[in-house]
Design brief:
Elements: H1 2-27, E1 98-102, E2 111-117, E3 130-138, E4 147-155, E5 160-165, E6 171-174, E7 176-179, E8 186-187, E9 190-193, E10 217-222, E11 232-237, E12 240-246, E13 262-267, E14 282-286, E15 295-297, E16 317-318, H2 321-327
Parallel strand pairs: 15-16
Antiparallel strand pairs: 1-2, 2-5, 3-4, 3-7, 6-9, 7-8, 10-11, 11-12, 13-14, 14-15
Length: about 325
């Protein structure tokens, strides 16, 4: 019982302390927020005071805070930029806006590339001429490793120019068109170059533009064969393909010499002393160490035409009679 009485006394003390502390906080302020008011007198009595609700206190009156005097914010200063002139000075760094137009691209054919400055009218006369380069990778006619080709161009005050491009191999090409001005313009178009077709008979050709200078002409012979590649005899004039014709070189048990050779004497209808066959429209291939043993020619009949593009000869290059007669100026 003593322990229970002591526990109840402790709880009661805690309960009585809370309102007492609250009253002390409320008594510390007057109604008007000024000096503290006196605490109410307490009666000295041995009997405990009757439990009453604590006197509610009034919250302090909030004093209004004076609003700060607004300070005038300075208005921003407008930056006036000069309007672009019709002919701005190159010192302002006017960048050329370059566009391009291609024709149909084909292996071995010169194709015009039109370059145009879309903002040429906004550039000063001192900006011209604008020079630049066109760069790309290409495989030569001899099928060696790819080489880097670079073509220069110049754009005058008219704002455009035409640049002839020649690709010696087919396929996808990535070009870099760059002007040499500062700041410059760069374009990187991807193009597709169609292959020049190899045919049995020569294609119709306008020969009026051809010269008879030997240095302008060249013959390229491809002897490689595969599922997608046939042997061909390709004629170029000033690096541009004129004809690409199917041909037949030596069978595996025979030899067609490899290298660079000149073409020599012609014979209209010689007869082979070894194979007893007539070789119409013969043109000698001058192979060092061999006397008129190799050449390109046609054959009598037409059955051999079905084998053109594959190895089928004794060592010479077989071509259609129509080409060897036309191409040899008979």
């Amino acid at each position: 019982m003593k322990l229970l009485s002591h526990a109840l006394t402790s709880v009661l003390s805690l309960l009585l302390m809370a309102p007492h502390a609250q009253a002390q906080y409320g008594d510390s302020l007057s109604d008007d927020g000024g000096s503290p008011r006196p605490n109410p007198p307490t009666e000295a009595s041995s009997s405990p005071a009757p439990e009453t609700d604590p006197t509610p206190f009034e919250l302090p009156t909030l004093r209004p805070i004076a609003e700060p005097t607004p300070v005038a914010t300075p208005s921003p200063t407008a930056t006036v930029r000069p309007s672009p002139s019709a002919t701005p000075n190159t010192a302002t760094g006017q960048r050329p806006e370059l566009s391009y137009t291609f024709g149909s691209l084909q292996e071995g054919k010169r194709v015009p590339l039109t370059l145009k400055l879309d903002n040429a009218s906004q550039m000063s006369a001192s900006s011209f001429p604008i020079r630049g380069t066109i760069s790309y990778q290409d495989v030569p006619y001899n099928h060696s490793q790819a080489v880097a080709r670079k073509v220069t161009f110049q754009i005058d005050a008219t704002g455009q120019t035409v640049v002839p491009l020649l690709f010696q191999s087919p396929g996808r090409k990535k070009l870099e068109i760059r002007t040499q001005t500062q700041p410059g313009a760069v374009r990187n178009p991807m193009v597709f170059v169609a292959p020049f077709p190899a045919t049995t008979f020569p294609l119709p050709t306008d020969t009026s533009r051809f010269s008879r200078k030997p240095d302008d002409w060249r013959v390229w012979v491809n002897l490689q064969t595969s599922d997608t590649q046939r042997q061909y005899y390709m004629v170029t004039f000033q690096d541009e393909i004129v004809q690409k014709l199917l041909t037949s070189s030596a069978t595996p048990d025979k030899v067609t010499p490899l290298g660079s050779f000149k073409l020599g004497p012609k014979a209209e209808s010689p007869k082979s002393t070894i194979y007893e066959s007539v070789m119409p429209f013969w043109t000698t291939i001058l192979v060092p160490g061999f006397s008129f043993e190799y050449g390109n020619h046609g054959l009598v009949g037409e059955s051999y035409l079905y084998y053109l593009g594959t190895p089928a000869s004794h060592g010479c290059l077989r071509l259609s009679n129509k080409w060897v007669r036309q191409g040899s100026d008979w």
